[in-house]
């Protein structure tokens, strides 16, 4: 009986899976990964770094190869180096709402972290339901495939459904697809080469 209770405690239910993933993300000091986003405007490839409580660095590979963006929550500003080399020359200081530092779908740098994504998914779940599909593999990783879908007519930031593939062990998202209320895909995001709690260089998020 004790063993069964421990298994139940360690295995989140379908409804609690997103909350469990968010809890693990919030417990991290930081992470870095390669983000591949495919949408109506084409592909974006970014080497993405995050350090709590909200420091973000994006090294662009596609479509603006060499550009670097750094967001610091202590200043509330995004520093942009269109041609790279942060630290060697001053970058442009911009608000996160500036079009120059927003993605093709309007995503803001200061709201680009995985925790914000999962909070949006959780908000959508409150408008509908979550269901767990059969386990599968993704790029050699065993993953949980979760579908979160709102009731008809309800959306969160245009999204009516999320498909998420969460790493079996860490619950870190490795792939996320979003769909509108008509069932048309808005964006497909792959999170590759994920490192949890890496040792960042001291000047990695320096302005």
Annotation keywords:
mainly beta; transport; signal; globular; twelve-stranded antiparallel beta sheet; 15% helix; MucB/RseB_N; MucB/RseB N-terminal domain-containing protein; outer membrane lipoprotein receptor (LolB), chain A; LolA/LolB/LppX; 207 residues
Question: What can you tell me about this protein's structure?
Answer:
This protein has 207 residues and is mostly beta strands. The protein has one domain (13-196): Lipoprotein localisation LolA/LolB/LppX (outer membrane lipoprotein receptor (LolB), chain A, Clam), CATH 2.50.20. Helix content is 15%, strand content 41%. It contains three helices and twelve strands, in the order ααββββββαββββββ. It has helices at residues 2-10, 17-26, 114-125; strands at 30-39, 42-51, 55-62, 68-72, 77-81, 92-94, 128-132, 136-138, 141-150, 161-167, 173-179, 185-196. A hairpin with a 2-residue loop joins strand 1 (30-39) and strand 2. Helix 2 runs antiparallel to helix 3. Keywords: Protein transport, Signal, Transport.
Please specify the SSE layout and strand pairing:
Elements: H1 2-10, H2 17-26, E1 30-39, E2 42-51, E3 55-62, E4 68-72, E5 77-81, E6 92-94, H3 114-125, E7 128-132, E8 136-138, E9 141-150, E10 161-167, E11 173-179, E12 185-196
Antiparallel strand pairs: 1-2, 1-12, 2-3, 3-4, 4-5, 5-6, 7-9, 8-9, 9-10, 10-11, 11-12
Protein name: MucB/RseB N-terminal domain-containing protein
Keywords: Protein transport, Signal, Transport
Organism: Halomonas chromatireducens
